[in-house]
Amino acid sequence: MAKKTYDLLFKLLLIGDSGVGKTCVLFRFSDDAFNTTFISTIGIDFKIKTVELQGKKIKLQIWDTAGQERFHTITTSYYRGAMGIMLVYDITNAKSFENISKWLRNIDEHANEDVERMLLGNKCDMEDKRVVPKAKGEQIAREHGIRFFETSAKANINIEKAFLTLAEDILRKTPVKEPNSENVDISSGGGVTGWKSKCC
Amino acid sequence: PKPPPGRQEEEGEEEEDGGPERALEKSPFELTAGDVYDISSVVGRDLLQLSTGPRVPAALARLQFRIVRVLEMLEALVSESSLAEEQLRMERDSLRRELEELRRGADRGSLSLGPDKMVIDLTDPNRPRFTLQELRDVLQERNQLKAQLLVVQEELQCYKSQNLLPPPACQGGL
Lengths: 200, 174
Hints:
The structure holds 2 protein chains of 2 kinds. Chain A has one domain (about 5-170): P-loop containing nucleotide triphosphate hydrolases (Rossmann fold), CATH 3.40.50.300. Helices cover about 25% and strands about 25% of the residues of chain A. Chain A has 6 helices and 6 strands. Chain A has a 6-stranded mixed sheet with strand order 2-3-1-4-5-6, sandwiched between helices. In chain A, a hairpin with a 2-residue loop joins strand 2 and strand 3 (about 55-65). The longest helix of chain A is centred in the last third of the chain and has 14 residues, at about 160-170. Chain A is globular and about 45 Å long. By secondary structure, chain B is mainly alpha-helical. Helices cover about 60% and strands about 0% of the residues of chain B. Chain B has 4 helices and no strands. Chain B is rod-shaped, with a radius of gyration of 48 Å. The relative contact order of chain B is 0.05. The interface between A and B is medium-sized, with 14 and 17 residues.
């Protein structure tokens, strides 16, 4: 049977327009590296990273989706299993910010009701090309009651913090189980009903 | 054009409506084959009079008038028909082009294409060939294999760090 070198398994999902840096954000977190060449993700990919929070080894299975419209029927089928979703936009790309409401609607339609959401404004190292003010990101996050970070995969700003915060938020509403519990139930999302996400 | 002078000897043939000369008064576009025969007989008679008749100058003038009239008719008919021919030729060419386009469209099978359809070039090596379901299956299999690889790598790491101790020493056991 599968051996467990971790206490909990959290499934996370990265979504957002094509080219905003989802794969780079994930690559920075999982491999602490950055690649400038843009390779469009085909459909869906994932990476694993184990972190330790509150004395628990938490295995993060992070799904990286293709932002391109043509993959949407494939990627949306992965929303259901996610316990946390990172919605990424690009602060130098106004369209990617405008599409946030569309992505939020996708979450409403396809994800678990109690999924933990987080908004990331990526590429914050490119201040000279910024077209989305930080305040606008903060505002839309506040309106939807979700956390918000400005990140840079390239300059390694807030990447680890964002993932750890999302994992902590999920951990906080995960029912306490035996540390070496055999089956980490991921299909239910491990949700505690009535838990309210708090604003940043 | 003055009316034909003196009508002496031919009274018998010109009973109703001016007889064969009537044909020369008609619009060229209303001429019938019978009218042409009438004109022919009128001109023939004039020629006969020229060679045998007593009043040559009058017959000559009349014939001249009739020949001019016949030439006018010919001109009108010829220009009319060449105009019609040109129109027909243009129409034919445009119909040919249209047919050619329709044939080519039918060959491509694009005749019935709606706004949601697209044409695939079968000679393009990069043309789309696989369905979304096939892509979904391949991605799922790739990700499953990747997950298995990660598990195996983890176990390997475990063995290595335990200095090749038997598996139960690893956390979680087999």
